[in-house]
From TrEMBL:
This is Uncharacterized protein. It comes from the Bacteria.
């Protein structure tokens, strides 16, 4: 029973890190695109 609980917590952490990485990548992509746009405008 305890191992199953640990497994559930581990799966939640894995899903949470995946979601956080996706959100961070989306944010960094927008920052990079705006920076590249500003660089090309100059």
């Amino acid at each position: 029973m305890r191992f199953y609980f640990i497994y559930l917590i581990f799966n939640d952490l894995k899903a949470g890190t995946c979601i956080a990485i996706e959100l961070l990548s989306i944010r960094y992509q927008s920052i990079l695109s705006t920076a590249i746009r500003g660089f090309y405008v100059r």
